[in-house]
Known about the structure:
3-stranded antiparallel beta sheet, 12 strands, alpha/beta, Aspartate Aminotransferase, domain 2, 39% helix
Amino acid sequence: xxxxxxxxxxxxxxxxxxxxxxxxxxxxxxxxxxxxxxxxxxxxxxxxxxxxxxxxxxxxxxxxxxxxxxxxxxxxxxxxxxxxxxxxxxxxxxxxxxxxxxxxxxxxxxxxxxxxxxxxxxxxxxxxxxxxxxxxxxxxxxxxxxxxxxxxxxxxxxxxxxxxxxxxxxxxxxxxxxxxxxxxxxxxxxxxxxxxxxxxxxxxxxxxxxxxxxxxxxxxxxxxxxxxxxxxxxxxxxxxxxxxxxxxxxxxxxxxxxxxxxxxxxxxxxxxxxxxxxxxxxxxxxxxxxxxxxxxxxxxxxxxxxxxxxxxxxxxxxxxxxxxxxxxxxxxxxxxxxxxxxxxxxxxxxxxxxxxxxxxxxxxxxxxxxxxxxxxxxxxx
Length: 381
Ligand code: PMP
């Protein structure tokens, strides 16, 4: 396969940065000892591990939080949701999330509902595709203890007002607010004051880091029921031998993701505008699923006449990698529950195409993608 590849599936995963990989490999040479061992090498490894957390907290300008390293966003979401709800279940059993969260949030809520007697309110996005702070507040009850609303939706790129939600939830001190920020960091996090968010989730491989590593950022005073019990690592919240090489790689990943934000954002927005302008001109072929506000890293549209999955396959055969529904549930379901939540027609729901961009994509790649798209539209019956 030596055909040129145009990779436009960056919301599924990004290509790892060589500097991150290099650091990871070098770390294994130097810091191979177990950070929990009490000998000198172990203590040194532990010191470096704690330093990675201190440095990352500083990058996020956080002073009241701690970091729990996990195997990725899926585990961080599960730990935040089940850990907090089960720990504080005696305070109340009503919890709130949105209908278009990632499965790692939705399934955790469904489990709490089915197995632990919690009542869940699933909020719908408004006509702009956004979960508003007012919608969250209107659904708080006397026994509400937990709210989880994603920062950026992974299929349509809707940006939710997590800071405003956190501000308004201040009036309800019993409620813990968590946000899945997997698609936010390095892409739409500008100006967000993370100190306001009680707990948030980050995944390394969504921002050119290593797959299989992530973090839950949590306010120190919030306790969680651990999901993995054992040797007591990660403040007793997530046992298992600490992965220092991955932690060092993660520190580098975060540093790189947070730098050059403005330039990258403007650039990716210009690529997104090109795609949006092109798709908007083909009103009988496509319908844009464009929220307001949206993150330019994710553009979603539906094919109205041809099967979305056939277009995605034809693009792939021509070297262009995009998604139909998100990779996380593409084998299980045909339609997109996210696009369905916008109240779109069955045709739109069943034929979505997600193009997810990166600052490494070039204008030429986007031009080529659009001309291949036009070409295959003429070929598919
Ligand atoms: N949340 C969101 C919004 C995501 O996009 C993803 C990845 N598709 C995840 C959680 C899961 O991330 P991970 O692969 O790190 O478990």
